[in-house]
Each structure stands twice: as C-alpha cells, then as structure tokens.
Amino acid sequence: MRKLTYFIATSVDGFIGAPNGDGDFFYSHLDAEFVGHLAAEYPETISAQARVQLGIADAAPQRFDAVIMGRNTYEPGLKQGMTSPYGHLPEQYVVSGSLATPPDPQVRLISGDLAAQVRELKARDGLGIWLCGGADLATQLIDEIDEIIVKTYPVFAGTGMPMSRAGFDVRLLELTGVKTFGGGQIISTYAVRES
Asked: Which domains, and CATH codes, for the chain?
C-alpha cells in the first residue's frame, strides 16, 4: 500500500505561505547544499521547469510517483503557463470543484469524496503519493496522511497560511529523520503513529 506524505515547506513558526498563500519568500533562502539535496533525494518534487534549470530533467522519481495538489496550489503555475508542473510523474491530481476539465491531458481532476478517492489511490501499487498542499487540502486529508516531511526554512513569518486548519486534536508522530543544512534549513521526517 502506498503512503500519503505531506511534504511541505514552512517557516520556523509553522506557516507554509503568506496570508494570501504565496510562498515565494522561501525561495530567497536557498543555498546550493540544500538545493542539491532536494535534487538528489526528492527530484520529483521539483517542477518540470526548475528540473531543466537544475540539469535533472531526466531524474527518476525517488519517493513519489503521484502528486495531489489543491486548486490554489496549482493556480500560480497555471497562470504562468505551466499546465503540467509535474509532468515527469505518472500521476498528477488537482482537487477542484470548479474546474470542469483539466487544463492539461496529464492532469487529472478530483472532486467529490476526496478521502475515499485518496484511499483508492493508496491501495494501488507504486511509489508514494505526495500531498503538495495546501492547508485546506491537508485539513481534508488529515486522517489519510501517513508521513509528514517538513522543510523548515530559517525565516519567521509572524502570520500566514498554517500547515493545516484541522483544529486542535493531538496526533502523535514519530521522528524518523532529521537533516540540517549550513544555510539554516532543516528537513524533519515524521511517521504518523497509530492512535
């Protein structure tokens, strides 16, 4: 059974974006060591356009062969003409109740009972499923998430979009890995413990 992994960038104070959802402020805090690690260990999580710039356009997926993103996460790339931001993955899903047809043949739309559809995807053979964002999508799928990988950037935002809007309910996690970088970034990996 495939795992659903919430792989997300966050500020030190737990925000994945500005109040309007924009996460561009993270990109000013990248260094070669951190980018190199992402390119080697998580190449499939780098957009097709950035993969070309990094010289890893043909890099095989390491952990994920499917991505699920919300409409708000998909929209900024779509406005820039990226209709298939992760076309190097066999499965790209956009959760939307407003799109009638996908803007690209490689993108599949999900609407209706999201949790049931994700359980169906998890039951298929393959690598893991990357939950790309955002907060509302993580909230809807909170009980389906098997693993959380947090890329913490050395910034304090003060306010913004949280990692989830699920409300207070303690969910136990097991720390399974930590990697630190000279630029101040930290990648923490957590398995969701059975309650």
From this structure: 4-192 (3.40.430.10)
% residues pLDDT > 70 (the chain): 99
pTM of the model: 0.95
CA distances from 79 to 71, 85, 173 (A): 12, 11, 36
Q: In this predicted model, what pLDDT tens digit does every residue of 121-155 receive, in sequence order?
A: 999 999 999 999 889 999 999 999 999 999 999 99
156 contacts 13 by C-beta, under 8 angstroms: yes
**CA distances (Å), origin 78, targets 86, 92, 109:** 12, 14, 14
Neighbours of 124 (CB within 10 A): 12
Return d(Cα 64, Cα 131) in angstroms, integer: 10
Which stretches of the chain are DSSP H helices? 32-41, 48-54, 71-79, 114-123, 135-140
**Residue 147 CA, distance from chain mean position:** 12
Nearest to 150 by CA among 58, 36, 1, 15: 15
What single DSSP character describes residue 193? Answer: P
CA 57 to each of CA 62, 67, 164: distance values in angstroms, whole numbers, following the listed order: 14, 17, 31
